[in-house]
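Re: magnesium ion structure - here you go.
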Amino acid sequence: MPATVVVGTQWGDEGKGKLTDLLSKEMGMVVRYQGGHNAGHTIVVDGETFALQLVPSGILYDHIVPVIGNGVVVDPLVLLEEVDMLARKRIDAGRLVVSGNAHLIMPYHHELDRLTERYLGKNALGTTKRGIGPAYADKSSRVGLRVQDLLDAKIFRQKLDVVLKEKNAILAKVYNRLPLAADDICATYLDELAPRVAPMVGDTVGLVHDALGRGEHVLLEGAQATFLDLDHGTYPFVTSSNPVAGGASTGAGVGPRYIDRVIGIAKAYVTRVGSGPFPTELTHEIGELIVDRGHEFGTNSGRRRRPGWFDAVMLRQAVRLNSLSEVALTKLDVLDTFETVKVCVAYEADGEVFHHPPYHQSIFHRVTPIYEELPGWNTDLSGATELGDLPQAARDYVGFLSEQIGVPVRLVGVGPGREQFVRFAA
Ligand code: GDP
Ligand code: IMO
Ligand code: MG
């Protein structure tokens, strides 16, 4: 049975957690394929909020096998804290399976993420300071420690000794910091954390393919989003992994032929956390209203998200990059009180009109959006359960977006609650 990918199409926080939870009813397995605890995926069930960072968003269903794929970077302390948090909420996350090939986030990764950002000063990327970039950099440099190394203390220590020598030299000579002690790291990672992580470690590629072979539906859950992608995003203001649908193949070990459905998730407007270009950004009252009504503050960092109008140029590119088969649109209810709503349908720069983002960053940084203004609906949508409950102006807005981006919008979110989705197109 084929696999489905859920991928963010903007700059993150589109509602991947909520959509993954909704789709999990029909799935057998949910696999996170990249990122780490820079993610914050929210699910709201009967007024109770679950904010997940590493654990796949299918975890709330007992029948789901939740998997952390090889493409994820794992801080084992955060992982166990999350497992404990879920246990307190009566969710058994002990059934989680973590790829032995996933890379570990180490204490020096956190430290270097913070220090690099400080060093960059006004050019800082605004990372989540969770050690994500440094951990992926070590993976590429082939000096990373992996989850499987937690199962072999001798190898863990050998690898740590090699890499720590260089990290401590950088900490001391570049950043004037005290060195980290290998003994302390081993005491935490091997003595405290490894015994609890070990039972979760497994061959996730084998597991995923066994499930596909049995005819089960497998959902591949992305973190971050298309325009935070290391290759396709607004580099350097990106994360250090590949959130695009292609990343699901490498990050879960599932070849592209197994994936037959790619659902892009988009907000009915756009938000971005951290630095970087943002053509439709709203810096005045309308933006404040969106932040206020949409509670646009980071799920776990608490940082204010930058708001903007819906950008169809980005979405058209996201359709290409991810081969989207459909879009799920969230947070339509946030626009309930607007007299009119704007949609960016193209960019303009130096007299040229762009229907897809210009590849050169210098042009992208100075594009101005060309907007279409549509009537608002001035109706509370939060109680809508079916298409007929949506006023014509809201339907027209969604229809217009769908037309602009060239793929159907199949689901529309009208509130944070688990069931607050309206089926829009078959
Ligand atoms: P993710 O990172 O893509 O999983 O998204 P986040 O969980 O970080 O951010 C999405 C936020 O919007 C969360 O607080 C959700 O509870 C909330 N949310 C999701 N869908 C809707 C919706 O349709 N309407 C409203 N008002 N809130 C939503
Ligand atoms: P979810 O999965 C929104 C942003 C950071 C920063 C940039 C690089 O919840 O959508 P990093 O720590 O990854 O090196 O930071 O990426 N960022 C996110 N923004 N949602 C996320 O995840 C994000 N994960 C990283 O703010 O701009
Ligand atoms: Mg989030």
